[in-house]
Write a structure and sequence with these properties.
The protein is mostly helical. It has seven helices and two strands; from the N terminus they run αααββαααα.
Length: about 160
């Protein structure tokens, strides 16, 4: 009995913030700020590629945006906050967001800024690339959460 009580559990749940969770909250806050600023400067939702340039504005004079870009940033922020709610989801969330931003960065770099309805420029690509690297790096730096005996018993 005593030895059973002294045995370490499968994992220890730490209240400390993992790198992945810090990334998720940080990127969520950044994207939320950019969303609010973006909607303050542009609410245009172009429906054709040739309208993207005419309907876009610049956040802080640097980042090109339009309504579609603002909605995409808001969605990404909500996803980040959703994954950050549970520490055991943070590693997966950071890796998923990092991989998604790799795809976004590559798609815009390979096809050009004016291919999609989302307004984008090189400054945006720096943000997209940073979010990709940050997500993947923080996800890899965060140790996977092992399931505790209580978790296993709850599922069974």
């Amino acid at each position: 009995m005593v030895q059973e009580a002294l045995k370490p559990t499968l994992t220890t749940r730490s209240p400390a913030w993992s790198p992945a969770r810090v990334y998720l909250v940080g990127s969520g806050v950044l994207l939320l700020v950019l969303t609010v600023a973006g909607f303050a400067v542009s609410t245009a939702f172009p429906t054709a590629r040739d309208q993207v340039a005419s309907g876009s504005e610049h956040i802080f004079g640097v980042f090109e945006t339009n309504g579609w870009h603002n909605v995409a940033a808001l969605f990404s922020a909500v996803v980040a906050f959703g994954f950050a709610l549970r520490p055991e989801w943070s590693r997966t969330g950071a890796l998923v967001k990092g991989a998604a931003y790799v795809v976004v960065t590559a798609a815009i770099a390979l096809s050009g800024d004016d291919t999609f309805l989302v307004a984008s420029n090189n400054a945006d690509q720096v943000i997209h690339g940073s979010l990709a690297v940050g997500g993947l790096l923080s996800g890899l730096l965060t140790r996977p959460q092992k399931r505790t005996r209580q978790d296993i018993q709850r599922v069974a």
